[in-house]
Amino acid sequence: MGNVLISTSSFGKYDKAPLERLVKMNYKTTLNPYGREMSEGEIKELLGGMDALVAGTEPLTRDVILSAKNLKVISRCGVGIDNVNIEAVKEKGIKLYRTPQGPSLAVAELTLGLILDSLRYISCLNRKIRSGGWEKKMGRLFSGKTVGIVGMGSIGKRLTLLLKPFNCRILAKDHVPDIEFAKENKIDYVGLDELLRDSDIVTLHLSLDNDTKGLFSIKLFSQMKKESVFINTSRGLIVNEDALYEVLKKGKIGYACLDVYGNEPYTGRLRELDNITLTCHVGSYAKEARVEMERLAVENLLKGLGVG
């Protein structure tokens, strides 16, 4: 019936059912041959002649999209579409889908893990022992802390529910407050300045756009508590990494955890610091979440092609 390119590098690794669904519907499927995120040139070359794309985070620029003459559907296996040139998609009449619910729990659980890691210096102590040291660091309890959630979408809400046993005060900033959810879960919607000033932990769950790109700079970091924890599991370009390096090195905030970066793989100087935990963009990398995302991505693709 047509040709489908799957650009995500691990698609079908843990469950073949989504791939088998495409085969059953008589689609010829091409997998990512590189085992990593593709470059603009690589994705452009492979997209030629394809009717549909299951997309990852590779750069789907205007040039890439306009050169894909037969492309009718882009089904993003994930949430963010900041890598997609929306104007070109609209211009060509391509249908664009996402899987916003698929990774929510996985990212929220990783965020919770990073909070606990930072308050008890788990990764830091692990590094010390492996390098021959035995230096105890006094941590802090999570129970009763104030958590500031910047971006109360599906991931922020999942995180809120995970935090309930810890009796945290939750502050939130979102451009469209969900008042009913806030009442049910005792969330206080506040301005960003107040959230930064009062939170012990600040965690970002934002999409990347013109308003959020570079949002967290020296100006915002300077408003946070000296011992506060900063976490970003959303999009790397929201954070000015040089500014984060400076405030961590000078002890103006206590600790940070990053899962996303402006350029990946990350090779920058934040790696020099002890008061930061770095993970390699694994927010959605929980087996169950990936399987569900892949299933939803294929269903969306078939729906877009009119055969779902």
Write structural notes for this entry.
- α1 (17-24) links the parallel β1 (2-6) and β2.
- The protein has a 7-stranded parallel beta sheet with strand order 8-7-6-9-10-11-12, sandwiched between helices. Strands 2-1-3-4-5 form a 5-stranded parallel beta sheet, with helices on one face.
- It is globular and about 60 Å long.
- The model has no long low-confidence stretch (mean pLDDT 97).
- It contains 12 helices and 12 strands.
- It folds into 2 domains: 2-102 and 286-304, NAD(P)-binding Rossmann-like Domain (Rossmann fold), CATH 3.40.50; 104-278, 3-Layer(aba) Sandwich (Rossmann fold).
- By secondary structure, it is an alpha/beta fold.
- The relative contact order is 0.14.
- α5 (104-120) packs across α7 (154-163).
In short:
The chain folds into two domains: 120 residues, NAD(P)-binding Rossmann-like Domain (Rossmann fold); 175 residues, Rossmann fold, CATH 3.40.50. Helix content is 36%, strand content 16%. It contains twelve helices and twelve strands.
Biggest beta sheet attributes: 7 strands, parallel
Number of strands: 12
Topology as a string of helices (H) and strands (E):
EHEHEHEHEHHEHEHEHEHEHEEH
| Helix content, binned percent | 25-40%
Rg of Cα set = 21 Å
Could you tell me the strand content as a percent range?
15-25%
Q: Strands across the major sheet, in which order?
A: 8-7-6-9-10-11-12
* CATH-assigned homologous superfamily of the largest domain: NAD(P)-binding Rossmann-like Domain
Count of structural domains: 2
Shape: globular
Overall residue-averaged pLDDT value: 97
